[in-house]
Amino acid sequence: MRPILAVALALALTALLIVAAGKNPFLAYAALGHGAFGSWDRIGAGLNKATPYVLTGLGVALCFRARVINIGGEGQIALGGLAATWTALTFPQAPPVVLPVLALAAGALAGAGWAAVAAAIRLHRGVHEVLVTLLLNFVGVLIVSEALQGSLGEPGAGFPQSPLLPRSSWLPRVLSGSDLHAGILLALVLVVVAHALLWRMPFGFRLRVLGASAPAAVYAGISPARVLFRVMVLAGALAGLAGAVEVLGVHYRLIDGFSHGFGFNAVAIALLGALNPLTVLPAGLFFGFLETGALAMQRAVGVPTPLVAVIQGLTMIFILSAMGLSGRRSKV
Amino acid sequence: MDATADLLAAALRIATPLLFAALGGILSERAGVFAVGLEGMMLTGAFAAVIGTHALGHAGLGLLASVGGGALLAAVVAVATVRCGADQMVTGLGVNILALGLTSFLLRGLFGRGEAPTIRVTPLSSVSVPVLGDLPGVGPLLFQQPALTYVGLVLVVLMFVVLQRTGAGLTLRAVGENPAAVFASGADPIRVRFLAVIGAGALAGVGGAVLSLQQVGTFTDGMTNGRGYLALAAIIVGRWSPGGALVGCLLFGAADALQLRIQGLRLPFSSYVIQMLPYIVSLAVLGGLGRGARLPAAIGIPFLRKP
């Protein structure tokens, strides 16, 4: 209920902005809806947009459940994309089905590795994980820039990007008449897996106990350090996978800055999804369709697309405030 | 000599917007509120400065608008985190997204009929320090800076004096360490934090104005481009002291200036490696050299009176 209220409040406030810009908010939102759902092609585009959001948001939700504030999605996505690109370019002769699987696995591994670095600094040096993951984001994104400047870059391209990946590494399309790729199926499966993990398995139980009360967790024989390390690595793997999916399914190459804004949006989505895997899915879809719909809105009624970020930011602030108020202390 | 002075001047120029934001961040964090929203506050300030100057016809009024813009966004942070007890870090991320969207939207919606217009304003002019500005070599480079650069340097001293030598500064620091004790002594920690966060927004707003009004002369989408986060890192490197933050900002400024200058040289790595340095140094300060780098004890923990 709370997330829906937050979204409604955000939409109402942004409607005022649209009025201030001299446009009709009802027409604008109608154009947004039509742009998001008007055809199979648009629906496919929205689902593609939502896929990395859902994957990364799942990891953030699991971390936040344990009160591990991992905001390192951005860097983990970037390095996941990098590893997938490297794999696809290094083993072009691998059989068609094997190559994308290999590249996806490499992406997940790279994301997990980068998260493990953050978790290790957190545990061995006692630096708050927010600061570690925030700072490592910038380093991760710069590593991608560095790689594109060097061995992975496409010579002669005017923009820092890798060469086109071999066709055999591309994720297959799953909906005729649209660009929808198989990444969404992966996301759906992982939503169910994350749900089972959180609510049906011992690890999920340990996560929730730690999140509810660290002293209680210790008393119950749960090692907070071990849980923190594992959940961060898990979230890193999901984010890395998101980066790989974005590269193998949408761009077919590594592009400098492709991960921009994904990591922070994933935090907003995890909150909007009430830190629950099954509801992270609609939250991610909402963000995805909002973004594809906004492009159509700008074309049709001239309301600029940055409005989407306003809606996203406001939603996030409202939910956080409500969480703070209802808990009388911060839950996240 | 000339090259060194040139590098120092560039470092100081790059450091100035960071410095204002970092000083604001210190105010907020010493009072116990993480300043992750600096990026958005700077961006709002940069936007308000250009729009204010354009609309009101005077750079001084634009500067005032940047103070208001930054403070307004900070008020959102203050209400959410201090009043409602929302998570400070994630709220910071939220207002950063909000500020990026809002400034880009307003630029197009109010001034460009859907397109992003370029609003040019005349950058603030440089002021020469008497005597020092006439020194051969270093004089023109180091002592003929725009006015806000000097203001920033004076603020470092002022901030130190206020925090360490005045009653108000003591109260602010106490709120960051033990708000319950401050409450018991009769002061209101919520009020102190509220004011500190809004002060942080005002200062970060000026930092944005330095960027848009003093250095670039226009506003572009997301023009702060991570400088707010860099200011956050400078606070860490400077261990939450104004003088330390100045050193941190100058260090990052020098690294950035150096990176622009070695692009012509043939090195085994590109300039991106140098761009990583501020973040790695911050991590090292937080981790390896962690003994002196202690965060205010009550930072991140909401203080809420029992109803």
In a nutshell, what does this entry contain?
By secondary structure, chain A is mainly alpha-helical.
What does this structure look like?
The complex is a heterodimer of chains A (332) and B (307). With 332 residues, chain A is mainly alpha-helical. Chain A has a single domain (2-327), classed as ABC transporter involved in vitamin B12 uptake, BtuC (Orthogonal Bundle). Chain A is built from 13 helices and no strands. The two termini of chain A are 18 Å apart. Chain B has 307 residues and is an all-alpha fold. Chain B has one domain (2-286): ABC transporter involved in vitamin B12 uptake, BtuC (Orthogonal Bundle). Chain B contains twelve helices and two strands; from the N terminus they run ααααβαβααααααα. Chain B has a two-stranded antiparallel sheet. In chain B, helix 3 packs antiparallel against helix 4, helix 3 (59-83) packs antiparallel against helix 9 (189-216) and helix 11 (242-261) runs antiparallel to helix 12. The interface between A and B is large, with 61 and 58 residues.
List keywords for this structure.
heterodimer; A: 332 residues; mainly alpha; ABC transporter involved in vitamin B12 uptake, BtuC; 13 helices; 74% helix; B: 307 residues; two-stranded antiparallel sheet; 12 helices; 69% helix; 2% strand; globular
